[in-house]
From TrEMBL:
Residues in RmlD-like substrate binding domain copies: 12-301
BP GO annotations: dTDP-rhamnose biosynthetic process
NADP keyword on record: yes
Record-given protein name: dTDP-4-dehydrorhamnose reductase
Organism name: Paraburkholderia eburnea
Length: 310
């Protein structure tokens, strides 16, 4: 027996609206209901009292939390700020969503794992983050689980897109600036994941809730944590090589180096591979291959035609 459609007048709240995933969500969620997209200028997410008041006044049917403190290295020395956004905010949103009987969708990270397994991680594997960013994101997951209600947590990895700050845009910028040699880490494995893919898959799932296509029992079975990344795997070196090959940047030499040769304040997991089998099994969704998604992103961004590296 299907539940009635969520009231059309109740909006969808999207946080982190200027971020890589948030900006895509404002497009993919269109048609499900009125979208209220907030960025830092409109709502200070570190002011939890203000966040509570904003949500209570808005009364959304769904909250999609795409906001996060993502400066991984900076988080090592700015722990309080990372904790406020990555751990405290999800708890506040979960509590308010529960009171409103709203669905909360939240994004987490592969960095909740230590990367020591020799296979893709499952949702049931025990987290053991190596850095402050991963620790605070894990705390956010656990806060949402403790509150309960209707929630979906999507762990993703190596997010990139046509906007914001990310690995792909950095590589393209360095090539455009005339760099002919780059050292890129080759012993960390993961799946580069296009922000547009994340938003599209989120919208497919959100539509089932917002349009009332499935009953409460169906949602009780599926509420929880899911891995959501592109299919396949590569290294940062492989990702960089694929970017330059796709944009005909033949003059850029990408040298493979070890993690120890590129020290950073925050330790990274060597294995960031996540299994998306649960997502496919419970939602019937097929994640795109990372190579295919990269080509689509580059085509959309216009770099394949305009960069003209020789």
């Amino acid at each position: 027996m299907s539940e009635a459609r969520v009231d059309a007048w109740r909006p969808i709240l999207v946080t982190g609206a200027r971020g890589q995933v948030g900006s895509e969500l404002t497009r993919t969620l269109q048609g499900l209901g009125p979208i209220v997209a907030v960025d830092r200028a409109r709502l200070d997410l570190a002011d939890h009292a203000r966040v509570r008041a904003f949500v209570r006044e808005l009364k959304p049917a769904m909250i999609v939390n795409a906001a996060a403190y993502t400066a991984v290295d900076q988080a090592e020395s700015d722990v309080d700020s990372a904790r406020l956004i990555n751990a405290g905010l999800p708890r506040i949103l979960a509590e308010e969503a529960c009171d409103l009987n709203a669905l909360l969708i939240h994004y987490s990270t592969d960095y909740v794992f230590d990367g020591r397994l020799d296979r893709p991680y499952l949702e049931t594997d025990t987290p053991n983050p190596l850095n402050v960013y991963g620790q605070t994101k894990l705390a956010g997951e656990r806060a949402i689980e403790a509150v309960g209600g209707k929630y979906l947590i999507f762990r993703t990895s190596w997010v990139y897109g046509a906007t914001g700050r990310n690995f792909m845009l950095t590589m393209l910028r360095l090539a455009k600036e005339g760099r002919t040699s780059l050292n890129v880490v080759a012993d960390q494995l993961g799946a580069p994941t296009w922000s547009s893919s994340i938003a599209a898959l989120t919208a497919h799932i959100a539509s089932r809730y917002y349009l009332g296509g499935d009953g409460a029992a169906w949602w009780r079975e599926r509420a929880g944590i899911f891995h959501l990344t592109s299919r396949g795997e590569t290294s940062w070196h492989g990702f960089a090589t694929a970017i330059f090959n796709a944009t005909n940047c033949n003059s850029v030499c990408v040298r493979a180096i070890a993690t120890e040769d590129y020290p950073t304040p925050a330790q990274r997991p060597a294995n960031s591979r996540l299994s998306c089998e649960k997502l496919a099994r419970l939602f019937g969704l097929a994640v795109p291959d990372w190579n295919v998604a990269l080509m689509q992103c580059l085509e959309e961004y216009g770099r394949c035609a305009s960069l003209h590296c020789k």
